[in-house]
Design brief:
The complex is a heterodimer.
Chain A (H helix, E strand, L loop, with lengths): L2 E3 L4 E5 L4 E3 L2 E3 L4 E8 L6 E5 L10 E2 L10 E3 L8 E9 L6 E2 L3 E6 L1
Parallel strand pairs in A: 2-11
Antiparallel strand pairs in A: 1-4, 3-8, 5-6, 5-9, 7-8, 9-10, 9-11
Chain B lengths: L4 E3 L2 E4 L5 E6 L6 E8 L3 E9 L2 E4 L8 E7 L2 E6 L8 E8 L9 E2 L3 E5 L1
Parallel strand pairs in B: 2-11
Antiparallel strand pairs in B: 1-3, 3-8, 4-5, 4-9, 5-6, 7-8, 9-10, 9-11
The chains are: A mainly beta, B mainly beta.
Chain lengths: 109, 115
């Protein structure tokens, strides 16, 4: 079975501090992992995917197969990073996405 | 392009009533997904279609829920009869099969309240 766990429903950090949103997954095959973000009054949208190994808006995420994790990190948080973040998984080549419960990130000034 | 369009944006109804949610995917996209978002369970996939054909409806909670996609530009999610526990935000998303892996484009959602 596919499962995505985001242990923190709420996360609050100060502007300029590092931020890490945790994501753990359960999948027997070779997974594809994603982070989606929903800013206030905006639509849910793709932030980044592990296969691209890219940095978007200063965020990076590394797939750790040994720990079955895909944590999202940013070294210096900005107020505009405040949003709801969802980690998602799909089987290789599959279309279906399984989402975690989401983490609401608040960046305090 | 206006992106994925959903209507209505808000729906308040009474228990037992029929509710129909509508979705227009992005033109040219051939996959469509219906999700439900609640505080307790997060974002759950209900059903998805490829080329208007339902592929996986394992997430549909029970027979009260049904979804159709009569053509490439329109889909409905129907709840009959509705119950208070159906209160949630329902999202529609579309993607281009063979396009960017994992990239689904979401609509603004329909906030459903069943009294």
């Amino acid at each position: 079975a596919q499962r995505v766990t985001q242990p923190e429903k709420l996360l609050s950090v100060f502007k300029g501090a590092p931020v890490e949103l945790k994501c753990n997954y359960s999948y027997s095959g070779s997974p594809e992992l994603f982070w989606y973000v929903q800013y206030s009054r905006q639509r849910l949208q793709l932030l980044l995917r592990h296969i691209s190994r890219e940095s978007i808006k200063g965020f990076t995420a590394d797939l750790n197969k040994g720990e079955t994790s895909f944590h999202l990190k940013k070294p210096f948080a900005q107020e505009e990073d405040s949003a709801m973040y969802y980690c998602a998984l799909s089987g290789q080549g599959a279309q279906k996405l399984v989402f975690g419960q989401g983490t609401r990130l608040t960046i305090n000034p | 392009d206006a992106g994925v369009i959903q209507s209505p944006r808000h729906e308040v109804t009474e228990m037992g009533q029929e509710v129909t949610l509508r979705c227009k995917p992005i033109s040219g996209h051939n996959s469509l997904f219906w999700y439900r978002q609640t505080m307790m369970r997060g974002l759950e996939l209900l059903i998805y279609f490829n080329n208007n054909v339902p592929i996986d409806d394992s997430g549909m909670p029970e027979d009260r829920f049904s979804a159709k996609m009569p053509n490439a530009s329109f889909s409905t999610l129907k709840i009959q009869p509705s119950e208070p526990r159906d209160s949630a935000v329902y999202f529609c998303a579309s993607s281009l099969r063979g396009g960017g892996v994992g990239e689904q484009f979401f609509g603004p959602g329909t906030r459903l309240t069943v009294l």
